[in-house]
Amino acid sequence: MKRDIHGIIVQDAKEDPSYQDGGDSAFSTGLMAFGGSKRDFDLMPLFIQDGQLVRHPFQDANTGTAPHNDPKATSRDQVLAFFSGIAGKNYFNTDSEDRLKLFMVRTAATNYARSWRVNSDVLSFSNKLYLYKCCDVGSLAPLWLELLGRLNLFIDIIFACFINPKHEVNQITAAACVYGKGWAWLLYKLHPDLFGNLNEYFGGWRNRQEIADAMITKVKAVL
């Protein structure tokens, strides 16, 4: 898996192996931290600019909407994958030197949880509740969001398992694990090939098999 001079995960390009595309760096960094990578957790605060997420903190390549280091280029998928990296972490089980990093990232995640949009992308009920839970403050979510978020996630899992099982399952896998063991079990049991989907997505030309391995290990630990 390729990393740049800052240690941040970047994307290989089939047509130019020397190219370091950071358009998915926030996505990859969050999922690796979710899977237990301390190295990537330590990098997470770099992606928060003025309380918002950027795709890559040091690249100004344009995705078609804005540069990678501009929050205007951030998508919902980037937000959901990135903030999985702080799930299960709180100030009591985090080293003192990491608490400031966690505070910075949690503050940004909470801001998104209270919003309904990530630029042009709409956050669903399940997305919003998931972000609260990533921040370890799920109890602060209003009751209506707790109820609608869980119903929304159930529908999302049914869709992912029966309607479009070959579509990437990265965000919903993270969400199910963050919601809890029962949800992760439901996704794992209903999906025809959850681990195969993760391996197929990150293996091959993406050359990020380590992310699939970390996520599969995480799912097994939750189950």
Topology:
Layout: H1 25-34, H2 38-43, E1 48-49, E2 52-53, H3 76-83, H4 96-113, E3 117-118, E4 121-122, H5 125-134, H6 143-163, H7 170-179, H8 181-190, H9 194-202, H10 209-222
Antiparallel strand pairs: 1-2, 3-4
Helix pairs in contact: 1-3, 1-10, 4-5, 5-6, 6-8, 7-8, 7-10, 9-10
Describe this structure in words.
With 223 residues, the chain is mainly alpha-helical. Helices cover 52% and strands 4% of the residues. It contains ten helices and four strands, in the order ααββααββαααααα. The strands form two sheets. It has a two-stranded antiparallel ribbon with strand order 1-2. Helix 1 runs parallel beside helix 3, helix 4 runs antiparallel to helix 5 and helix 5 packs across helix 6. The longest helix is centred in the C-terminal third of the chain and has 21 residues.
Shape: globular
The level of helicity is 40-55%
Strand order of the largest sheet: 1-2
Low-confidence residue ranges = none
Task: List the defining traits of the structure above.
4 strands; mainly alpha; two-stranded antiparallel ribbon; 10 helices
At a glance:
The protein is 52% helix and 4% strand. The protein is built from ten helices and four strands.
